[in-house]
């Protein structure tokens, strides 16, 4: 992973050489020499990165190189920091030759010369002891370990007894069905899931069943893994096929000397007329199938190929005409408990003693249904009997740092996916452990952080956002991140890191000084670059010498942190690149903020900050300024100096979501449109000539604008028409009675996915039929009188439709279309009496949400039987007749439900949100 650090620093040095020529006169030779050395160091580190490190000597060299890279970065950033202070004071032209700067240059030159000498001495020691040549293999595996360890471990699953297995009954039944269903065509079955979920165990137990052995004429179990030789794989396959064939043919005597062609011919001849079962365990690359497919004949005898993989893209690959995918999920709580008790309390007939019950359940919960972790932990606890021992492990459990042998397999198998990553993805994966345990990580936030950290490799063909999205998809496909929720486009909305993988990532990060976690009581300087503070009542505190920190993220643990303990940031963070204070109870930003010239990411979401510094323009490297739900009402004029800004997201809420003005835009200078790199402009008020100026911002992908007047309509449509990259558009009129004029737009932006119109509409604009990419449509306070549904029913990708006071009629008729609609929300339609959903319309609807429609007299006919995918029904402030009807259809007791409704009323005074009586049912 250190190779990417060198790569990032190389990019920084090249940028400085190109852009700061005058400043660097007198330092150019030293910096050029550093550049050459870093290029060699990067190559060295990439070799180490691919192979991992075995011994202490190699580890020491790698650590030395990494420290050198960090030291160079510190020297250059310190120099640029002091020079930029001179810039900000207005002395730039004199700063270059002033005595202070000249002295600083001499000091920097001496430091760089010293580092160059030390780099060369590291290289000389490496050559003297042959360090580079000794690099290889996977990290975490002792150099004297059996190279066939993984294969042996995989194949040992074939000898597990049924009594050792828990929670696979339903999954195995489905798997057996696909293997034995009588389909004559060759069929592929892919079992996919993260490491440690028990894929191999499930398949091995199925493979050895007598019913399977009798069904197939010959079988073979092949362990593939990350590193494989195709000839060795084919030889193993020949040996297995002959050994397990029902006719017991003799294995070819010349097997060891067979060529690739001979091996293929032997397999084809043997399998061509037989019903065969081939298990390919632990497949990492789709190229493997291309290597062996010629040896597995496509016949119509009912043959099956069964593979296990962590990679979703491999599992979903179209191998054959008939393909099945079996996603393996974590064990249920009950199954996890049973498996743990079998391992931890084997001597007690798998019964947990009552006095250990709370500790045992806590440990099982930490495993999150991961069988390998449960088995490892259960084995560890089998020898522990006292409350003191159990309590100590519960409080101090650290997966990676545990030296207990029972964890070796867990650590190794979990880290296989990490070691297989390209080096930039390794950084992205490790970075996720900066979030607290079980934290739901928002996709957009993570991507912006990766970009600010410099992890995203830019390309000519794609934007950084697209590249970063690809990184995220790769981590998800490899099972290293879990998707919790998806949006209407099926892109991940929130992800999380499995606790076991997070502990492993933390242990690697600690060794690499990549991330450190603090409880808010302070952390001492140990060369760390990124700090995650899980803040309590102590607020944010830093230890001595923490000034080299590049990233600071604060996460609020306690619900009631006093503002006085959290109101100021500690001093000394002058080189920060990332400052994320989401949810922190601060009301004023530190005076030092504007001196953070290196800052690329600033997140103030849900803080109590009322204003930004007037001199915020000094943060000219800032890429992301995110201040959602703050108390900021106006942006200072200096914001237009942030020429590198890509994301400007600032808005606040001031009312219930059922009110027209629930969201409020922010005042911005009219010349905000001079920011040529800005991608997101959200949520701003239409003032002065801003709407006309928006026509210059063709690069926008997201625009949210409020206080739009009827007279602004034509100019706004011209501006939107220029935004061919727009994916998100929100337009809100200046009040609920102001007409929203959007007819002048000829055609919708082709990439538009989310459209929110808030304001009175005479009719739907004609361009609605061009919303081919829209997945989310929100009509707010439109108060349409005409039947508008025929204009949107054919939208091919519409997944969510929200109608809030959007219709003044008595009857909504969904007659046809809406084939991809998943969520339908109808709120505050005061005259609505009936909703009609014809049979075959919205067949994939999963959620029906009706709120504040007091005149509604009946639910849509057939909702309980003709909407097969319906999972949630949410009713709020509707008539008792509707609730009675629902209870009757759902076999629920009306009186008990009404009691529950009244008991659940909540009012939150401080945020002015009023939660009305709700009725909610999940199937």
State mean pLDDT (0 to 100 scale).
Answer: 80
Number of strands: 30
Please, what is the CATH homologous superfamily of the domain at 149-327? P-loop containing nucleotide triphosphate hydrolases
Alpha-carbon Rg, integer: 31 Å
Low-confidence stretches: 132-147, 894-923
Q: Name the CATH architecture of the domain at 149-327.
A: 3-Layer(aba) Sandwich
Q: Considering DSSP H and I runs of 4 or more, what fraction of the residues is helical?
A: 25-40%
| Bulk shape | globular
- What is the count of helical runs? 27
Instruction: Kindly identify the CATH topology of the domain at 149-327.
Output: Rossmann fold
Largest sheet: 18 strands, mixed
State the secondary-structure class.
Answer: alpha/beta
Distance between the termini: 46 Å
* Percent strand: 15-25%
The level-1 CATH class of the domain at 149-327: Alpha Beta
Pfam family, one: LRR_14
Domain Disease resistance R13L4/SHOC-2-like LRR: 563-875
Protein name: Disease resistance protein
Domain Disease resistance N-terminal: 8-89
Notes on the protein architecture:
The structure is a single chain. The protein is an alpha/beta fold. Among the domains are: about 1-135, no CATH class; about 150-325, P-loop containing nucleotide triphosphate hydrolases (Rossmann fold), CATH 3.40.50.300; about 335-410; about 425-510, Winged helix-like DNA-binding domain superfamily/Winged helix DNA-binding domain (Arc Repressor Mutant, subunit A, Orthogonal Bundle); about 785-923. It is built from 27 helices and 30 strands. It has an 18-stranded mixed beta sheet that branches. A hairpin with a 5-residue loop joins strand 7 (about 480-485) and strand 8. Helix 2 packs parallel to helix 5 (about 100-130) and helix 15 packs parallel to helix 17 (about 370-380). The longest helix is centred in the N-terminal third of the chain and has 33 residues, at about 55-90. The chain is globular and about 90 Å long. Residues about 130-145 and about 895-923 have low confidence and may be disordered.
């Amino acid at each position: 992973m250190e190779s990417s650090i060198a790569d990032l620093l190389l990019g920084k040095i090249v940028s400085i050489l190109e852009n700061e020529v005058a400043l660097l006169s007198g330092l150019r030779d030293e910096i050029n020499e550093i550049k050459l050395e870093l290029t060699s160091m990067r190559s060295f580190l990439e070799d180490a990165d691919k192979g991992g490190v075995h011994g202490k000597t190699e580890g020491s060299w790698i650590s030395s190189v990494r420290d050198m890279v960090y030291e160079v970065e510190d020297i250059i950033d310190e120099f640029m920091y002091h020079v930029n202070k001179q810039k900000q004071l207005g002395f730039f032209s004199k700063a270059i030759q002033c005595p202070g700067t000249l002295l600083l240059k001499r000091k920097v030159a001496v430091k760089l010369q010293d580092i160059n000498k030390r780099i060369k001495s590291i290289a000389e020691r490496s050559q003297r002891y042959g360090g580079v040549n000794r690099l290889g293999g996977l990290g975490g595996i002792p150099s004297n370990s059996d190279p066939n360890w993984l294969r042996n471990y995989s194949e040992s699953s074939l000898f597990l007894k049924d009594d050792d297995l828990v929670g696979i009954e339903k999954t195995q039944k489905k798997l057996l069905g696909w293997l034995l269903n009588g389909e004559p065509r060759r069929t592929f079955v892919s079992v996919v899931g993260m490491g440690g979920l028990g894929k191999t165990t499930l398949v091995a137990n199925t493979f050895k069943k007598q019913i399977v052995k009798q069904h197939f004429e010959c079988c073979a179990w092949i362990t593939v893994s990350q590193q494989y030789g195709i000839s060795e794989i084919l030889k193993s396959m020949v040996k297995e096929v002959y050994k397990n064939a029902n006719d017991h043919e003799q294995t070819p005597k010349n097997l060891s000397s067979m060529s690739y062609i001979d091996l293929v011919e032997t397999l084809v001849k043997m399998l061509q007329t037989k019903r065969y079962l081939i298990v390919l365990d632990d497949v990492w690359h789709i190229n493997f199938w291309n290597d062996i497919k010629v040896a597995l004949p496509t016949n119509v005898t009912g043959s099956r190929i069964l593979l296990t993989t962590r990679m979703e893209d491999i599992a979903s690959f179209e191998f054959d005409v008939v393909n099945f995918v079996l996603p393996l999920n974590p064990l249920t709580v009950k199954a996890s408990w049973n498996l743990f008790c079998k391992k931890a309390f084997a001597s007690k007939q798998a019964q947990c003693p009552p006095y250990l019950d709370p500790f045992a359940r806590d440990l099982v919960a930490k495993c999150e249904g991961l069988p390998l972790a449960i088995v490892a932990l259960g084995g560890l606890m089998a020898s522990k009997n006292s409350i003191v021992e159990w309590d100590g492990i519960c409080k101090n459990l650290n997966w990676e740092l545990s030296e207990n042998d029972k964890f070796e397999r867990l650590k190794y198998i979990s880290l296989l996916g990490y070691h297989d990553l390209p080096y930039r993805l390794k950084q992205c994966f490790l970075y996720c452990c900066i979030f607290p345990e079980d934290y739901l990580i928002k996709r957009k936030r993570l991507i912006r952080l990766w970009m600010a950290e410099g992890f995203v490799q830019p390309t000519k063909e794609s934007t950084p956002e697209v590249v970063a999205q690809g990184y995220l998809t790769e981590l998800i496909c490899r099972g290293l991140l879990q998707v919790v929720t998806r949006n209407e486009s099926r892109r991940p909305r929130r992800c999380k890191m499995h606790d076991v993988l997070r502990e492993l990532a933390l242990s690697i990060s600690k060794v690499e000084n990549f991330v450190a976690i603090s409880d808010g009581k302070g952390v001492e300087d140990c060369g760390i670059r990124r700090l995650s503070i899980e803040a309590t009542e102590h607020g944010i505190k830093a230890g001595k010498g923490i000034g080299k920190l590049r990233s600071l993220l604060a996460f609020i643990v306690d619900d009631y942190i006093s503002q006085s303990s959290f109101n100021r940031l500690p001093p000394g963070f002058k080189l920060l690149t990332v400052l994320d204070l989401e949810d922190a109870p601060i009301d004023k930003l530190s005076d030092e903020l504007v001196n953070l010239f290196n800052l690329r990411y600033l997140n103030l979401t849900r803080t109590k900050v009322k204003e930004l510094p007037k001199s915020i323009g000094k943060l000219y490297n800032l890429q992301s300024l995110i201040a959602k739900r703050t108390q900021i009402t106006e942006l200072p004029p200096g914001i237009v100096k942030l020429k590198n800004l890509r994301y400007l997201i600032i808005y606040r809420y001031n009312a219930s979501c059922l009110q027209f003005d629930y969201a409020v835009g922010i005042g911005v200078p009219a010349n905000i449109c001079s920011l040529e790199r800005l991608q997101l402009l959200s949520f701003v008020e239409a003032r002065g000539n801003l709407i006309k100026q928006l026509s210059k911002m063709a690069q926008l992908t997201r625009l949210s604008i409020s206080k739009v007047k009827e007279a602004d309509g034509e100019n706004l449509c011209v501006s939107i028409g220029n935004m061919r990259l727009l994916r998100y558009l929100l337009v809100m009129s200046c009040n609920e009675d102001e007409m929203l004029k959007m007819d002048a737009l000829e055609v919708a932006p082709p990439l538009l996915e989310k459209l929110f119109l808030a304001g009175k509409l005479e009719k739907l604009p004609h361009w609605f039929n061009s919303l081919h990419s829209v997945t989310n449509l929100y009509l707010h306070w439109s108060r349409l009188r005409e039947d508008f549904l025929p204009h949107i029913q054919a939208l091919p990708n519409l997944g969510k439709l929200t109608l809030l006071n959007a219709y003044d009629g008595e009857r909504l008729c969904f007659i046809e279309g809406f084939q991809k609609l998943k969520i339908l929300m109808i709120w505050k339609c005061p005259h609505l009496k009936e909703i009609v959903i014809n049979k075959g319309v919205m067949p994939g609807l999963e959620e029906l949400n009706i709120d504040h429609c007091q005149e509604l007299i009946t639910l849509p006919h057939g909702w309980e039987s003709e909407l097969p995918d319906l999972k949630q029904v949410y009713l709020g402030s509707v008539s008792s007749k509707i609730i009675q009807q629902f209870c009757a259809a759902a076999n629920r007791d009306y009186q008990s439900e009404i009691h529950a409704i009244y008991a659940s009323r909540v009012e939150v005074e401080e945020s002015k949100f009023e939660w009305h009586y709700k009725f909610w049912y999940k199937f």
